[in-house]
Design brief:
Length: 263
Amino acid sequence: MFPTIGTTQRKGKALYKAVPQQSDENSRAPFQRAQRRRQISVLLHLLTFIVGLGLGLTATAPFLALSTPERKAQQLPSVIPAQVFTPPIPTAWVPDSRYIGFSNFSNIMWHRLIKTTESVWIANPSAHGLGPGFEAPFNHTSKSQLPPQFYHVSNLHQLHCLNVIRGRYFELQLHLSTLSKQSERAAQDTAYHMDHCIEYLRMTIMCGGNWVIEPNSPPGTPDELRRDPFDHPLGWGGIRQCVNWDSLMAWQKQQLDAYEGTF
């Protein structure tokens, strides 16, 4: 930097004196220091942002890299075989007449769904972080000698409860003569079980294990599946990705066979 000097002379005297370079630098020093502080502050904020972004991406990248079924699989109990959940089964979202209404045929179909009970036997529950289970839901000679290692599977429990409510509904609607009408104790048992099942289903739904955003029926859905006779929207139609229920049943039976081999 060149010093500022006055070159105009009047009567042999300089009108202006040279300003020393050091004096010029001293006058600007406070501004330079303030500017450096601002630059350092900006750099520190930028560095903090970059570090935070890097840490966030490092923590979430493995999760974001997974597909939706794989993310769901990470949240599922390890005791249930993976083939129950993957690959998902594309399922037409339409009512199945085999389970609708009350008839010998529909009753048989419902019985097939719940005949294995809502329980599954687990050989090594502690390995899966499980506490004590239930006693076997059926009788055998060694029942009292074996540890309680049957566990309810929530979806099977829900299905069991739905069948209880279904049976009671048709019992009242069709004025059927059933076990609950044969004695006061049986009637009380049925009433208590109904209350239990309704509350269990309420809590299970509100716990939020399954979330699907349901649109209206897609184009091309038959009218009888779009709206009911009272003009209420039904929302049937389309395809959903579901678990392999047959695989779940096969695993439950396999576990039961293993349990029967222990006595």
